[in-house]
Amino acid sequence: xxxxxxxxxxxxxxxxxxxxxxxxxxxxxxxxxxxxxxxxxxxxxxxxxxxxxxxxxxxxxxxxxxxxxxxxxxxxxxxxxxxxxxxxxxxxxxxxxxxxxxxxxxxxxxxxxxxxxxxxxxxxxxxxxxxxxxxxxxxxxxxxxxxxxxxxxxxxxxxxxxxxxxxxxxxxxxxxxxxxxxxxxxxxxxxxxxxxxxxxxxxxxxxxxxxxxxxxxxxxxxxxxxxxxxxxxxxxxxxxxxxxxxxxxxxxxxxxxxxxxxxxxxxxxxxxxxxxxxxxxxxxxxxxxx
Length: 290
Prior knowledge:
mainly alpha, 77% helix
């Protein structure tokens, strides 16, 4: 593995770590705050910061946008929005454990399939083993009593859509970043996504934003867990294949589980410990030096 590939792997793992703080942050949020409202605010804040960054760095397109470029910008932006909506409603319908397992667990498979079909990225042999271990770890991490499990078909479809749209905007971003600067691509994605999600804010109570806890929550989620995380992710995505990036980003549920146990005091089982170990092993295998 080259030094650039290793650097890309580390950047994506760090992005996943920042994403993984989202659940813990929302667990400390003011009572009654809607997840869809938080998701909308995340996009808007990140979009504003990406736009400011774009203006400061002047990383505007050096060439005219072609129809193909506009297509990838529009599809990528819509994918960001559909990811937020499908993940939020999918988790609400199918439950956190099953929803997260299907949504995040399906993304490496979508990444391998779509990356090969549309970018010609053939996954390395180690990717198959690492992805298998990561998904197995995710199953252990989300382990629930099978006898009490009720599968909701609509919820499953929504979570599969969430995993799919996550990979689609990653693919579109990677395609666009071969021509345009990452700051421009991310500014369009998140500013556009934030504008499209704004109606959600008008349908919910936003008074919690004026509280100290609410303000701190959104500063963290908007700036650190979204803006900074996607700076790292976009830079890493330029250096590694999409299939590898989607597997490496499973550092997100790994971080979320560790924080849930240490910060929120969630109960830990032997199954959870095995899951953490398997995902950690998967990330080490996939980001190792040759």
